[in-house]
Each structure stands twice: as structure tokens, then as C-alpha cells.
Design goal:
62% of the residues lie in helices and 0% in strands. Bound molecules: protoporphyrin IX containing FE.
Length: 193
Amino acid sequence: MILKRLKLATNVRHSALEDQLPLMRANLSREDYCRVLAGFFGFYAPLEIQLMDSPYWQQLPFDYADRQKTPRLKQDLLALGTSPWALDTTPLCAALPDLNAPEQLLGCLYVIEGATLGGRRITQHLQNRMGLTPESGGSFFDGYGAQTGTRWKVFCAMLLANTDHAQDEARDAVIVAAANSTFQTLTQWLFPT
Ligand code: HEM
């Protein structure tokens, strides 16, 4: 089943990224956290422009518009004291994952929608460590708040409806490759080697 396959295929990249991000560290500082937010902003802002411009939504019955995360990243950075000028001049990632087929869109969406799931732990840590709430600078990692589980299920149902057919092996392979590429481009952007 595609969801199991995606989880297995991206597990190593997920763990590596989780380890590299300072988010759950006991000594996480406000500066570290702002750097992480600015890094995510630099990736999500151009990625979501590409996503929203995609011609493939006609084939995929999924409303991404109100799932966009760039507004939350902006809101958090501004709440934490970043100036609008600094936000406008934040470096943006140019090496984004390819979104040239509906399957590539699905693989990319798996990663950015799945990323909302770690939110509960991260939100708790931001609260304990820095007294941050979703309203005061922690909205991006809070995902969709209480709706996170439900919205993940809606995404998974759409993914399954668009893939789960025996003859779709080649399509599934493209989805998995796109998910890996999304993890890889994000990791390379945040932690260049
Ligand atoms: C410190 C940072 C992170 C932590 C602590 C974390 C933690 C978690 C946890 C606990 C889950 C499983 C939730 C559940 O099964 O209910 C999860 C799932 C997931 N996370 Fe993360 N995560 C982090 C960062 C990220 C990032 C940066 C991405 C990608 C942009 C990401 C992508 C995913 C995906 C795709 C899943 C879904 C896996 C699946 O069930 O198929 N995570 N994460």
C-alpha cells in the first residue's frame, strides 16, 4: 500500500532531518528557532507558489489553498520580531523538487502534509522551553491544531483514491521518488553540505 511504502522509503531521511533540526533540543534558543523558521520560509514560499500554480489540481480533487503554510511562517516570524523588510529579503530556495506530473505533486504533498504530524510534540516543547503558543510565534509547527489528524486523514484518502490500483506500480514509484526528493531538497536547503 502506498502509504506504508512512502513511510518506509522516507524513514531514514525523516529521522536524519529530525536529528539535524534543533527544534526538540533542551537548549533550543529563540535565535535557533527563528533561523529554522526562516529556513522553512525560504523553502515553502517558492514551493507553495509552484504548487498553487500547478495545472494538475484538475486531476487531483484536493483543496490545497487553505492548507498553505507560508502565511503561518510569515505570521510566526513577524510575531518573533522579524521586520517586514527582513522577511522580504529572506533567501529563497531555487533547487525545489520537480512538480512536473500529478504523481510528483502527490509525493511532495505527502511530505509537507505529513510534516504537520510532528507538531504536537514540537508545540509542547516550544511552549515549555520558550513560552511560545501558536498565537505568539508557534503556528507553523502546530500544523492544523486540533484538526491535524482529520486533515491528514483527508489527504491520505485522496492519495489512496489516486493510487491504489495493482497496475499502478510505475506511478507509485514516481510518488515515492518525489517524496524522497522533497525531503532531500529541503534537507540540502536547510543544511547545505
Ligand atoms: C524535529 C522535527 C520533527 C519531529 C519531532 C517529527 C515527528 C514526527 C512524528 C512524531 C510523526 C508521526 C506522527 C504520527 O504517526 O502520529 C511524524 C510523521 C511525519 N513527519 Fe515528522 N517530525 C519532524 C520534522 C519533520 C519534517 C521537517 C518533515 C518534512 C518536511 C516531516 C515529515 C513527516 C512525514 C511525511 C510524516 C508522516 C509519516 C507517515 O506516517 O507516513 N517531519 N513526524
